[in-house]
């Protein structure tokens, strides 16, 4: 294996640099990883996926698999870095807390470091606001985002108006705060994205001339139309990036765990994303909480059901078409999301403090964010307000936050705790995989040329072969199967050479099977067992 370069924590990866890193890894670790593409984006970028498995362990397809995706939301680029850290730990031998050699011979990791490369590239190169993808409408009086002052970024414009709903904070004029209803002392400002007004006739400027897509509302579980759930898309998996992911996951039923990297107020999230905790079967909730608490311990983040990921004055969250609900309700898996933090967390504001504030009070934390910016000027998070003569609007001020900085953790938090802790959680979780073994195969002669063959099949892993109780209700989940293969000259006398034995609990009850065969001149038989999530096992024995 060649030298493996560690990921960097002093900047955010652009598409070209990420691609180069993945190619270097694939070349340096040939035989233990392969670089694939799930497909191309609308702008022609590849959706890269790294397959990590020791190919010397036999066929990779069909092995128990863990699936990781990141950067589904355009600005949340820290997930890419955490994915690269996972890749590095798996391939460099840094995960010395498990037997990596055995793990990579038996398990395959599928890692998609950037599910939304078009959106991420737009966010990083413009600094403009974007959720996953934005379709802008070029119609009369529509504001179309554009780098008007030519500084390379698209930030905000503030325009002094008597009816403006914002004003500069008296403590720091860089910070804009909402105008109080009783406030009559200006100046007041209207705030809109930096850009030009298409076909302007002097009338009211239409700012919201766009359709915003949220890829994390495009999953089929509890999907609702856009008038009920913003960003949902036209139908589940309507977006090409999401459809590419879905086609891969549905084609690989060996996947036993999924984790998505996000950025926002720091937390480890588990389902449900809408409804109540009763959506999760009691036995599954117990495992969710056990696994989630381990993730929280390793990352330093709090475990929350997604419905509780909200401010104190808001009702329980109701995120329809959400990934974690799909992972559990549709796939029968323990699906987690790790919210790695935002600029407020980076500035020392704890998630519980942020959520304790009402929606109207959250702007008070902006002074913490500005302090963090001032302490890290080299990161150039904020464009200072500066006057500019707009070709259409006259004198305006242009400035504000490069939006991707608002929704990512600090490099320090990511490097020291979140990325290594997340990688360890994923690897520890994968080490708990269901693991099908044939513990023994016994042969006894019961007559001239007649033999009784007995085999014991068990699950040696720390998760059941069905993973969750929820999965038992899904028709896509196949039971564990066992087959007796007779060698040359061997005749199977028993009915049921192929048998389905249901599912096996974690390190618990095993299944004993029995066959009778005729082999006048000896020979051998092979017992093969297969589980969708627990892999394959076989035992061969001579008839003597």
Polypeptide structure, described:
The protein is α+β, with helices and mostly antiparallel strands. The protein folds into 3 domains: 15-122 and 214-342 and 411-431, Aminopeptidase (3-Layer(aba) Sandwich), CATH 3.40.630.10; 133-212 and 380-406, no CATH class; 436-542, Immunoglobulin-like, CATH 2.60.40. Helices cover 24% and strands 28% of the residues. It has 12 helices and 26 strands. It has an 8-stranded mixed sheet with strand order 1-2-4-3-13-16-14-15, with helices on both faces. Strands 10-7-18-17 form a 4-stranded antiparallel sheet. α2 packs across α12 (411-431). The longest helix is centred in the C-terminal third of the chain and has 21 residues, at 411-431. The radius of gyration is 28 Å and the shape is elongated. The relative contact order is 0.12. The mean pLDDT is 95.
Compact summary:
The chain has helices at residues 15-28, 78-92, 100-106, 117-126, 240-250, 282-299, 323-330, 343-346, 351-356, 366-375, 403-406, 411-431; strands at 33-40, 46-52, 65-70, 108-112, 133-136, 142-145, 156-160, 166-168, 176-178, 189-193, 195-198, 210-213, 255-262, 267-270, 303-305, 334-339, 382-390, 394-401, 436-447, 450-459, 481-486, 491-492, 498-500, 511-518, 524-531, 535-542.
């Amino acid at each position: 294996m060649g030298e493996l370069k560690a990921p960097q924590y002093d900047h955010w990866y652009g598409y070209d640099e990420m691609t180069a890193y993945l190619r270097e890894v694939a070349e340096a670790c040939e035989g233990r990883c392969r670089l694939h593409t799930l497909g191309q984006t609308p702008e022609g970028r590849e959706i890269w996926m790294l397959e990590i498995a020791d190919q010397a362990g036999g066929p990779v397809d069909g092995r128990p698999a863990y699936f990781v995706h990141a950067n589904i939301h355009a600005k949340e680029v820290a997930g890419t870095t955490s994915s690269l850290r996972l890749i590095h730990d798996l391939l460099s031998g840094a995960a010395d807390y498990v037997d990596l050699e055995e793990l990579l011979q038996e398990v395959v990791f599928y890692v998609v470091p950037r599910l939304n490369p078009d959106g991420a590239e737009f966010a990083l190169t413009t600094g403009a606001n974007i959720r996953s993808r934005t379709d802008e409408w070029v119609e009369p009086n529509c504001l179309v985002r554009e780098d008007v002052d030519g500084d390379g970024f698209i930030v905000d414009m503030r325009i002094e108006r008597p009816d403006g709903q914002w004003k500069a904070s008296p403590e720091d004029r860089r910070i804009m705060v909402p105008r109080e209803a009783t406030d009559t002392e200006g100046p007041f400002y209207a705030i809109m994205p930096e850009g030009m007004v298409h076909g302007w006739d002097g009338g009211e400027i239409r700012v919201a001339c766009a359709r915003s897509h949220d890829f994390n509302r495009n999953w089929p579980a509890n999907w609702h139309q856009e008038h009920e759930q913003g960003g949902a898309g036209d139908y589940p998996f309507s977006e090409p990036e999401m459809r590419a992911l879905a086609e891969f996951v549905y084609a690989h039923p060996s996947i036993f765990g999924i984790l998505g990297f996000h950025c926002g107020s720091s937390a480890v999230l588990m389902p449900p994303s809408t409804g109540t905790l009763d959506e999760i079967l009691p036995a599954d909730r117990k495992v969710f909480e056990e696994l989630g608490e381990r993730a929280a311990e390793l990352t330093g983040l709090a475990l929350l059901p997604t419905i509780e990921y909200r401010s104190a004055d808001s009702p329980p969250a109701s995120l329809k078409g959400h990934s974690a609900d799909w992972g559990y309700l549709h796939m029968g898996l323990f699906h987690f999301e790790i919210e790695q933090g935002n600029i407020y967390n980076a500035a020392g504001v704890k998630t519980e403090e942020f959520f304790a504030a009402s929606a109207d009070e959250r702007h008070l934390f902006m002074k913490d964010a500005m302090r963090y910016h001032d302490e890290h000027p080299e990161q150039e998070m904020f464009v200072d307000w500066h006057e500019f003569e707009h070709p259409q609007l006259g004198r305006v001020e242009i400035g504000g936050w490069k939006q991707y900085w608002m929704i990512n953790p600090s490099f320090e938090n990511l490097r020291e705790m979140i990325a290594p802790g997340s990688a360890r959680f994923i690897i520890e979780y994968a080490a708990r995989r269901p693991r099908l073994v044939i513990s023994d195969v016994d042969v006894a002669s019961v007559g001239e040329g007649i033999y009784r063959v007995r085999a014991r099949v068990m699950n040696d892993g720390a998760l059941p072969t069905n993973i969750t109780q929820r999965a038992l209700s899904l028709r896509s989940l196949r039971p564990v199967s066992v087959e007796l293969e007779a060698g040359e000259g061997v005749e199977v006398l028993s009915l049921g050479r192929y048998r389905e034995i249901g599912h096996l609990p974690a390190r618990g009850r095993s299944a004993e099977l029995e066959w009778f065969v005729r082999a006048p001149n000896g020979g051998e038989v092979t017992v093969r067992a297969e589980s969708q999530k627990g892999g394959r096992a076989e035992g061969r024995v001579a008839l003597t």
